[in-house]
Specification:
five-stranded parallel β-sheet, globular, nine-stranded mixed β-sheet, alpha/beta
């Protein structure tokens, strides 16, 4: 039997609150009092909820700003409708600006177009587009109509598309000529699909024959439909419990599960954008996540736009030079990105960012998987002493839960502290609370996840969690998976599937997923601590570790390592890295095997796919790979 794990941080450094260096105080100046006095009515009041039409995310993010005045100090008397909402940087180098009014009108045209095609409330409309302005307008148009929006990654292949469309019985897909062949390959297997709307303008601008994509009787060119549609739309009454967006989350085996979210989630998304990202009216914000990932909707749409903040969207993929150029030229002030992207920037070296100027940048945050202390140290070196604040949450939670706040000291490698309104716990296998320093299952107290809200639901769904059992942003249920939904809740707790521990100061520390923890010679070892030690070695850019079966130790730790430029794999380097980790952790917690790879498999949202490495190492089925980065 494995011994009880008494966890300890491998990093004793504590950085001061990032807000200490700011000219203006943070939106949340004091943590302890806010946690003691918090109620969800306060968050609802900040958004002036409910509105005349209830709680609709599109109304709150777009239409609600059309009669408001910009609160930015230098914009006295300027109507918010005329403020840039979206600054779009195309992959061809074009730059287009959409005001809140322009984005609202375009979303109205989408809502009217879908209504004309017979789309009803609650039907599922999927958006399979590159990261273009119409992607965002389409999602908002779907929400205004009362339908359910399903954003899809542009990199999805036919099988991934089929899994999602067939599972939810999609009625309409909005796509482009470049992506449509992948949809055509499986559309015969989705009998519910009535129309495919094809956005042709960008293909035509590139000189491509976009009309050739209209192959089927129910294929419709999108632009003529939008041109005929009114840019005014009356949004029907929307309950906070009405479904809004569905995001699919993948497990090790089986088909992806559709986590269905609700319009009321905007309460938590807006509050966390205000408190954690510290968004203010003067900010220019960049969230690098695609809307195909929950961060791309929660914090690439709903959070910032509910606050009337200008944000940048870049169509092109990751390239260090491009990203640094965007930070500089667009004068980004708040940047929310993924740890994998940060490590890839690290891999490109420190000479490159030295060529750019980041004086406008005041606040940096990360999401997707734990941020290694080494990445935080690097960020401080490159971005003028500014500290990346890591945030923890899940597809199912819909918004941040445990975070590093601008008003609190930062312990590199820590998840941070729970937000007001969130009560985590660490449980053993019998469901008993563990003491500080003991590792176990990370759970969230279900009975405190939103019971003080005044915006109660007016509908229930089989398999749903009742309103007084969940945080406002919590998912409604997994689509057509009531048993799986209910299996996440036991004894009044929501089981996250993560393992963690809490220190004496109330900070939480991520260990790994339940199925990632390694049992080596009776010692439980979390992958994150080993990976953090690995990337502290000067040669290592990225690292992932797995447990490999061993006849003597049950499992040994095997590491997969990607090296920085200028280093080459060798037996000598492997032994050097092993010694380096062993001296920092323990004799049982170093990798006994190291494999060097050009790059590590990751999801498109930047999460390391350890289970894929393990499946390949052991010759096991790879499971769902629909989110695998190409």
């Amino acid at each position: 039997m494995a011994d009880v794990v008494v966890a300890s941080s491998t990093n004793s450094i504590v950085y001061p609150p990032v807000a200490d260096a700011w000219a203006t105080p943070p939106n949340l100046p004091e943590y302890a009092t806010a946690r003691e006095t918090f109620s969800w009515q306060q968050a609802e009041a900040l958004l002036k909820l409910p509105r005349a039409n209830g709680v609709n995310q599109a109304t709150i993010c777009l239409d609600g700003h059309l009669e408001a005045t910009d609160e930015a100090p230098k914009a006295s008397g300027v109507m918010l409708k005329d403020k840039p909402a979206l600054i779009w940087l195309s992959q061809t180098g074009a730059r287009e600006v959409f005001t809140f009014e322009a984005l609202s009108k375009l979303s109205n045209q989408f809502a009217n177009t879908l209504q004309t095609l017979g789309v009803k409330k609650g039907e599922r409309v999927f958006v399979f587009l590159e990261r273009v302005p119409e992607l965002y307008a389409a999602i908002f148009g779907i929400l205004k109509l009362g339908a359910i929006a399903g954003p899809l990654f542009a990199a999805f292949g036919p099988e991934a598309i089929l899994d999602r469309l067939a599972d939810c019985e999609a009625c309409v897909v909005i796509t482009s000529p470049a992506l449509k062949p992948r949809l055509d390959a499986i559309r015969a297997q989705v009998p519910s699909l009535r129309h495919v709307l094809v956005l042709t303008q960008y293909a035509e601008q590139r000189g491509e024959n976009a009309q050739s994509a209209l192959l089927h009787a129910n294929d419709l060119a999108l632009e003529p439909l939008l041109a005929q549609a009114s840019d005014a739309f009356e949004v029907p009454h929307t309950s906070p419990d009405d479904p809004s967006v569905i995001h699919y989350t993948s497990g090790t085996t089986g088909k992806p599960k559709g986590a269905l979210h609700r319009h009321g989630a905007v309460v938590a998304q807006s509050l966390t954008a205000r408190w954690v990202l510290d968004l203010k009216p003067t900010d220019v914000y960049w969230c690098t996540a695609d809307p195909g990932w929950v961060t791309g909707t929660s914090y690439g749409m709903f959070g910032p736009w509910s606050l009337g903040v200008t944000q940048v969207v870049a169509e092109a993929g990751f390239k260090p030079e491009t990203w640094y150029q965007i930070l500089q030229d667009e004068k980004i002030t708040v940047w929310y990105t993924a740890p994998t992207a940060i490590r890839m920037l690290m891999k490109a070296g420190n000479a490159l960012p030295a060529q750019y100027e980041f004086s406008a940048l005041r606040h940096l945050a990360s999401v997707g998987e734990p941020l290694n202390p080494e990445a935080i140290t690097w960020g401080r070196q490159v971005f003028g002493g500014k500290t990346f604040l890591d945030t923890w949450w899940q597809t199912e939670t819909g918004a941040m839960q445990i975070v590093n706040l601008p008003c609190l000291p930062v312990k590199p490698g820590s998840m941070g502290k729970p937000l007001p309104g969130v009560t985590p716990g660490i449980l053993d296998d019998k469901g008993q609370l563990l003491s500080a320093g003991e590792e176990g299952h990370l759970v969230l107290r279900a009975s405190s996840l939103g019971g003080s809200s005044t915006l109660g639901p007016d509908a229930t769904t089989p398999g749903a969690i009742t309103c007084d059992e969940r945080h406002p942003s919590f998912f409604k249920h997994y689509w057509q998976r009531p048993e799986v939904t209910q299996s996440k809740f036991k004894g009044g707790w929501y089981y996250t599937g993560d393992r963690a521990w809490q220190d004496a100061d109330g900070y939480y520390w991520f260990v790994g997923r339940d199925d990632d923890v390694i049992n080596t010679a009776g010692h439980l070892v979390g992958p994150f601590e080993v990976e953090s030690a690995l990337v502290e070695h000067p040669a290592v850019a990225e690292a992932a570790v797995i447990g490999k079966p061993d006849p003597e130790r049950l499992e040994i730790i095997k590491a997969f390592v990607s090296l920085k430029a200028g280093y080459q794999p060798s037996e000598a380097l492997s032994k050097e890295i092993q010694t380096f980790v062993r001296t920092r952790l323990a004799a049982h917690a170093y990798p006994r095997e190291i494999a060097f790879l050009e790059s590590l498999p990751k999801t498109r949202s930047g999460k390391l796919m350890r289970r894929l490495l393990k499946a390949r190492e052991l010759g096991l089925p790879e499971g769902d790979t629909s989110t695998l980065e190409e």
